[in-house]
Design goal:
mainly beta; Cathepsin B, Chain A; Lipocalin; 12-stranded antiparallel beta barrel; 11-stranded mixed β-sheet; 72 strands; 50% strand; elongated; Outer membrane autotransporter barrel domain protein; signal; Papain-like_cys_pep_sf; cysteine-type peptidase activity
Length: 1076
């Protein structure tokens, strides 16, 4: 059954609402529930450190008995011997008669269980003191009792412990018992001052017992007492039992309980949009306030969109405040979109505050959670979030704010998020988590089970005490007792440490990561993994492996790793870093610090971040596939020092850093040198000579080449201009030329120079001229071709409107002056013409065109958009279906040039937009022979186009932008060819297929040079334009149809093969005409 509550006003949530705060009796004893006992008799562990088994099985037996209604003689009695000698070999936290912790015995009861005592009795000799050691691994064939799960109880949480005792069963605890007060205890209520988890007290936890009841009757110190069952025989204490004041002997610092079956309580669901404030209550010397109190539900939930507050203040009582207290099954969840506050103050007593206290599966905080506690004279704790979920996953997501704080004195601790889950805990933080306290403060803590933290926000922990007393000392951003993964792209700050981990930890630092405070890693196989970009100046202690698998990281400080693996990206050593180092094939090792340990280079080592000095305090071995990269500046160069032996092989790569005119430089100093570089490779702009002036030393003699001496003819104009300005180039222009100088080969240098030239604009001009001639060709075909009709006289005095939809796909090969390119053209031609009886046709036409092109070898691309107007006339012999024909046309047009030029070597691109004007004319003539139904028509003619382009300025690449002068270009084309057709006619429908073959010759194929100047400086320089094709062969096919006496259609395809340009053009067109 589920019950949903909605709170929209100031509301107090307390009993008797079902499932809310429990109305507990003032006393409870598992030995007397309605006159029945649900726990077995006291026994003696004798001379054997097996208290962990007796304490754990007391909780297991009582919980099983309560769950299944077994009491008195029916109650089960489980075998401690099986746990001591059969289970303990399986767990690190149990060591037979030599003692054990409590977590592993709890886990063993869930994973394996134990048989009954009657199956495997505890082996005590008749003297009742000597224990007979047993062989390991006995009685595994016996039926075993297993438990569903186990859970932790918060430190000094009397209220939760009372509830667990009353509702579930005994609680296993650790106590400080190695004192006379315990050994000599005969009866009464024991009271002492061991109540706070100080460094000394935690170390003194030496015995496990089971709490089996409580009594709220207060003593002189104002607290009630526990009833505990010991394992020191019935002769000890009160028939083997003890009464112990709450928190005395550290009885509430280390507490656990078991459940025998899955949680099955009624689930409650609260949605709060108002204001809920707790009403405090007292019990057994404790003072409690819970804003929301849900206990025992299988999957209860709280959604807060308003305010929930719990505020408790008492002079001397153990004071506890919890904004939300939800304790139950693994489906329990809290979602906060509003404000949750908890504050606890007790001037003379202990004070503990929890913003959210959850035993359940999920917390999502998008609002604010605050917890504040303080005491003038005693122990104080505050938790923004305290959570556990047993063996199940626990998920905590924070995109809001979590704050936990106490006063600044000793004996005070705080935690933003504290997980006691022994299953996996996953914390995702994109908000803010902060803990501020006196003795210790922890941002995020993983105490029992595996932890996963992904932080892109801020985690801060500040502890102010100079001499902390509590067990968790100082301020730690993230604390992990267990195997953990920490992924950080935000800030993790700790007053004493950013990270403190005590089991295997994988720390992944991503772009944006900032650690404030050293990272302490005490696991056996800890790994620090660097992803993305960043720099870290904190110290790493104890990590076995550092792995660089990012882009660019720099480490300073004094850190030592067992091994350093540079797998991918650049790792800069800028402090004193220790570790046996391997540089992988895709890795780069650099920096200006000292790397202590031997280095094996299978990738690249390059000192500094620009010009720098890297020291290897050890031996250096370079493989045959590796590179040592050295930069050479104006008056200095990289230095590489190896205190041991430098074993050389592979490549020495020499590149300039900024402008260098050459010189002599000491490159490598080593204790000794063995081997030689297999290859010495330098930038094309440099001439280098490697010298060995003394043992253990390699030096360089460097001189500079000119751009002109290396440039191909196409780039010579630019190269000459750059040579003049290179020594004085500054700012962005210097940076551009620095990148140019990094070209390693003459070919790469010329490719980069070519990218700086206006070659794309030369290509755009050539394409515009080709497109203009192509449109004249469409007009010529219109003029030379009559629409099929029964009699030519049918067209006399007729007016015809026509439309043509051409498309072209062209491929231009690279030449000495420009790259290869692909062009796609789309457009529309339309015209209106009138015919006369003497065979004359006069018309006018217009055209819209769009030509898109892109380079095959770069990111250069552009678009020409054009608008054209034409006047044309043609004459066909009116006396015969064939005969002579003549045609001519005049045209003009506007073109908008839009181009993007890529400078890949510099990571830049330019954009330009300018206009051009077209003028042109074409003439043609021919004769059509009609032989039977065949038509054979040779043709000759020519076309002229002139293109005037305005001057313009590029933008977007700073000093690499070009200014180009105005430019005039011409195309004079002559052609000769023929067509052959065979018309068919059915009544008013006529169909005429044809084949055509033309040869074109360009009489003005050489284009003028482009005159341009770089924005960064230098003289105007000339770059050859892209020449037109000298000769072209056009092969075509068409199908023309008369659909009716006044409607005509034409579908054509042409393939053009050009010489010189190596271009191939495929054209498809559709023309429609109507005569009226």
């Amino acid at each position: 059954m589920n019950l949903t509550l909605y709170a929209s006003l100031t509301t107090v949530l307390l009993a008797p609402m079902p499932g809310l705060a429990m109305d507990l009796p003032s006393s409870f004893d598992l030995r007397d529930i309605d006159g029945h006992s649900f726990i077995g008799a006291v026994r003696d562990q004798a001379y054997c450190g097996s208290c962990y088994a007796f304490g754990t099985l007391a909780a297991a037996e009582s919980t099983w008995n309560r769950t299944h209604g077994l009491y008195d003689q029916q109650a089960i009695d489980l075998s401690e011997a099986f746990m001591v000698w059969s289970l303990s070999p399986l767990y690190d936290g149990m060591d037979g008669c030599d003692g054990g912790l409590l977590e592993d015995p709890m886990t063993a009861m869930v994973e394996h269980g134990t048989p009954l005592e009657s199956v495997y009795p505890y082996p005590v000799q008749e003297d009742q003191w000597t224990v007979i050691e047993q062989p390991a691994g006995q009685h595994w064939d016996a039926p075993r009792y297993t438990m569903e799960d186990w859970y932790s109880i918060p430190v000094n949480d009397v209220e939760t412990t009372r509830r667990v005792l009353h509702a579930i069963g005994a609680v296993t605890i650790g106590v400080n018992s190695d004192r006379e007060e315990w050994h000599d205890y005969q009866g009464g209520v024991l009271n002492d001052n061991f109540r706070v988890p100080t460094q000394v007290n935690i170390a003194a936890l030496d015995h496990a017992v089971a709490l089996i009841g409580y009594n709220d009757e207060t003593g002189e110190d104002g607290l009630g007492y526990w009833i505990l069952r010991n394992s020191w025989s019935e002769e000890w204490g009160e028939d083997g039992y003890m009464r112990l004041r709450y928190t005395t002997s550290m009885s509430n610092l280390w507490s656990f309980y078991l459940i025998a079956e899955p949680w099955s309580g009624e689930s409650l669901h609260l949605v709060n949009t108002g204001d809920i404030q707790a009403v405090p209550w007292s019990a057994g010397g404790t003072y409690n306030a819970h804003g929301v109190d849900f206990w025992g539900g299988k999957a209860s939930s709280v959604v807060n969109q308003g305010t929930i507050g719990a505020h408790a203040q008492s002079d001397e009582a153990l004071t506890t405040a919890r904004g939300i207290y939800l304790w139950g099954g693994p489906g329990g969840s809290v979602r906060n979109e509003g404000l949750i506050t908890a504050s606890a103050f007790s001037p003379q007593g202990q004070a503990v505050a929890y913003g959210i206290c959850l035993q359940g599966g999920e917390i999502v905080n998008q609002g604010t959670v605050t917890a504040e506690a303080d005491s003038d004279a005693n122990f104080t704790l505050s938790y923004g979030i305290w959570a556990s979920n047993g063996k199940n996953d626990l998920v905590i997501e924070n995109s809001g704010e979590i704050v936990a704080q106490t006063g600044a004195d000793t004996l005070k601790g705080s935690a933003g998020i504290w997980s006691e889950n022994h299953g996996r805990t996953q914390v995702t933080n994109s908000g803010s988590i902060s803990a501020v306290s006196g003795d210790w403060a922890i941002g995020v803590a993983f105490i029992k089970g595996p932890g996963w933290l992904e932080n892109s926000g801020t985690i801060t922990a500040v502890a102010s005490s100079v001499q902390p007393l509590l067990d968790y000392q100082g301020g730690v951003g993230v604390w992990a007792n267990t195997p953990s993964v920490i992924i950080n792209s935000g800030t993790i700050s700790g007053y004493n440490a950013s990270i403190a981990s005590y089991d295997t930890t994988r720390l992944i630092l991503q772009s944006g990561s900032d650690l404030v405070g050293p990272a302490w890693m005490a696991g056996e196989t800890d790994v620090v993994l660097l992803n993305g970009n960043g720099m870290e100046n904190e110290v790493f202690y104890g990590a076995e492996t550092l792995v660089m698998h990012g882009v660019d990281w720099s480490l300073s400080g004094h850190s030592t790793f067992g091994a350093i693996q540079v797998e991918h990206g650049r790792l800069g050593i800028d402090g004193v870093i220790g570790g046996e180092t391997t540089v992988g094939a895709h890795g780069i090792l650099g920096g200006n610090g000292t790397l202590t340990g031997n280095v094996t280079n299978r990738g690249t080592v390059s000192p500094g971040h620009s010009i720098g000095h890297l020291t290897i305090d050890g031996n250096y071995t370079q493989s045959s596939s590796a590179t040592l990269g050295m930069e050479i500046g104006a008056d200095q160069a990289d230095r590489f020092t190896v205190t041991g032996t430098a074993s050389l092989d592979g490549t020495l790569l020499l590149v300039p850093n900024g402008y260098t005119n050459g010189g002599s430089f000491s490159m490598l100093d080593a204790g000794s040198i063995s081997g030689v570089f297999d290859r010495v490779q330098g930038a094309a702009i440099l001439d280098t000579e490697l010298l060995s002036l003394s043992p253990g030393n390699l030096s360089l003699e460097v001189s500079r080449n000119s751009y002109t001496s290396l440039a191909i003819p196409h780039n010579s104009g630019l190269a000459t201009s750059l040579d003049r300005v290179r020594p004085s180039a500054a700012n962005d222009f210097a940076d551009l030329l620095d990148r140019l100088d990094l070209a390693l080969t003459t070919s790469a240098l010329n490719n980069a120079l070519a990218e700086m030239t206006p070659r794309i604009h030369g290509l755009a001009t050539t394409l515009a001229l080709d497109d203009a001639q192509s449109r004249f060709d469409s007009l010529r075909r219109r003029m030379e071709h009559f629409d099929p009709s029964p009699e030519s006289s049918d067209r006399a005095g007729a007016t015809t409107a026509w439309f043509e939809f051409p498309s072209h796909h062209s491929r231009y090969e690279a030449d000495d002056a420009s790259f290869g390119a692909t062009k796609n053209v789309y457009g529309l031609l339309f015209g209106l013409e009138r015919s006369t009886a003497d065979g004359l046709i006069l018309g006018m036409a217009g055209a819209l065109g769009e030509s898109r092109y892109e380079s095959d070898s770069s990111a250069d691309e552009g678009e020409n958009k054009s608008l054209h107007a034409y006047l044309y006339g043609s004459w066909n012999d009116p006396l015969t279906p064939g005969g002579w024909r003549l045609g001519a046309a005049l045209g003009t047009g506007l073109i908008d040039f839009d181009a993007d030029r890529s400078l890949a070597f510099a990571g830049r691109a330019t954009h330009s937009d300018h206009e051009g004007r077209l003028f042109g004319a074409t003439v043609q003539g021919g004769y059509d022979w009609v032989i039977g139904n065949w038509i054979l028509g040779p043709s000759v003619g020519g076309g002229w186009v002139r293109l005037d382009e305005e001057g313009f300025q590029e933008s977007g690449a700073d000093s690499a932008d070009l200014s180009l002068g105005s430019r005039a270009s011409d195309s004079l084309l002559g052609f000769a060819g023929a067509r052959i057709a065979y018309p068919f006619q059915w009544k008013t429908f006529a169909l005429e297929p044809e084949l055509r073959l033309h040869w074109w010759h360009e009489f003005n194929r050489h284009s003028d040079d482009l005159q341009s100047q770089l924005a960064g400086g230098g003289d105007m320089f000339l770059t050859p334009g892209r020449d037109l094709a000298g000769d072209s062969l056009v092969m075509g096919a068409a199908l023309e149809a008369r659909l009716s006496p006044s409607a005509f259609a034409h579908l054509g395809y042409d393939c053009t093969l050009q010489s010189d340009n190596g271009a191939t053009d495929h054209a498809l067109s559709l023309r429609l005409a109507w005569t009226f």
